[in-house]
Amino acid sequence: MSARRPLQTGFTLVEVLVALAIVAIALMAGSQATSALVTNATRQSDVMLGHICAQNELVKARLMRELPSYGDQQSQCEQAGRSYQVVTTVSPLPNPQFRRIDAQVFDARYPVIRVSTIVGRY
C-alpha cells in the first residue's frame, strides 16, 4: 500500500498578503483621484461665483457715469450662500480720460480670481 498525500487546495498566507497589498494600493489611488476631483469641483465653483462678484463690481463702476476716484475699496459679496470679499482697485492710465479698475475676489482661505477693465469718460 502506498501512502497518498491528500491534495491541498487554497492559498498560502503570503499569496493572501500580496493580494491584500495590491487591493490596498488600488483603493488608495482611487481615493486620491476622488479627492482631487472634489477639490477641483470646489475650486471651479469658487471661481465661477467669484467671477460673478467681480463682474458686479466692475459693472457698478461703469454704471456710475463718472470716473471713479483712485484707490482701493472693499466690499462683501454673497453668492450661493457663500461670502466673498471683493477688493476693487482704481489706478491711473497714461491717458487721464481713462482709469483701470481691478476687482480681486478673496475667499476666507485664498484669492479666487482677478478681473480688470478700463472705464472712460462718457
From TrEMBL:
One protein family per Pfam: N_methyl
PTM comment, free text: Cleaved by prepilin peptidase.
Keyword match Zinc-finger: no
InterPro entries, per database record: N_methyl_site, Pilin-like, T2SS_GspI_C, T2SS_protein-GspI
Intracellular or extracellular location(s): Cell inner membrane
Subunit field text: Type II secretion is composed of four main components: the outer membrane complex, the inner membrane complex, the cytoplasmic secretion ATPase and the periplasm-spanning pseudopilus.
Family membership noted in the UniProt record: Belongs to the GSP I family.
Protein name: Type II secretion system protein I
